[in-house]
Write a structure and sequence with these properties.
Helix content is 41%, strand content 19%. The chain has 11 helices and 7 strands.
């Protein structure tokens, strides 16, 4: 007989769920919501009510964790809920089927394979009556910004997201001893030619790094840049995956 193995939670799920209270409108217990103790949230009469999908308690708790603590790995969420992979994947599947979560996959370049992210949908925010901080577009982009900043701060290096330099917004600016590096995040190859022109010719950077979502994007970005710029400009830019950037900087 198969024995259910419960993974010890790193942090009590209750604590994580309660963190989201500060974002809740109105203030009501998110833990109660997640455990189906509250059937529905009273909304203003002019607002159209959102029908809650018929999903199990573990799926609801998983959705709430993705809202209150974004950018964790799937295993991180499962650990917090005390679920093994079988039951965790079941909860994830139910939440995706209920259109409360979207799954993103990419390869950061680190050994161990793909990275899987869980993004709460607008429907999830509506059901739990929370402001939509993440609405499908740009989630992986924000995750990569977060990971670059987190990695730099861990090494004692200053990193600022969406810093304005000479009137131009940069995805991240990393500041060392008398140096400033513009870091652009490339989830596709669509905008990097424009971004590089902006960073070098308008913002005045002499060192630009483009952190790409995966190997396919990396290859496409390199190809576009090599067609658009001469060797002098290309000598000022480096394209890489997240893992390579974090290993080389620090």
């Amino acid at each position: 007989m198969e024995q259910k193995q419960i993974v010890q939670a790193i942090t009590p799920a209750h604590d994580i769920l309660e963190e989201a209270k500060s974002h809740c409108k109105p203030r009501i217990s998110l833990l109660q919501m997640a455990e189906s103790k509250v059937d529905k949230v009273n909304r203003p009469e002019q607002s159209k009510p959102v029908t809650e999908p018929d999903i199990d308690s573990n799926a609801k708790k998983l959705v709430m964790l993705t809202i209150s603590s974004p950018f964790l790995s799937t295993s991180g969420y499962y650990n917090l809920l005390g679920l093994n992979y079988r039951y965790g994947n079941e909860a994830k599947g139910n939440a995706i089927k209920g259109k409360l979560l979207i799954e993103h996959e990419f390869h950061s370049g680190k050994k161990g394979g793909k990275t899987v992210l869980l993004e709460p949908t607008k429907t999830a925010f509506d059901i739990f009556k929370l402001p939509p901080e993440y609405v499908n577009c740009g989630f992986v982009h924000r995750y990569l910004q977060f990971k670059v900043k987190e990695g730099m701060i861990a090494k004692g290096i200053k990193a600022t997201i969406e810093k304005t330099v000479n009137g131009k917004a940069i995805d991240l600016v990393v500041e060392g001893d008398n140096t400033m590096t513009a870091v652009e995040i490339a989830v596709t190859d669509r905008h990097e030619v424009v971004n590089l022109r902006k960073d070098i010719f308008q913002a005045g950077f002499t060192n630009v790094v483009i952190v790409c979502k995966d190997k396919d994007v990396l290859s496409a970005v390199k190809k576009k840049l090599s067609s658009a710029f001469d060797s002098d400009i290309l000598s000022k830019v480096k394209c890489c995956l997240l893992a390579e950037f974090l290993e080389e900087n620090g």
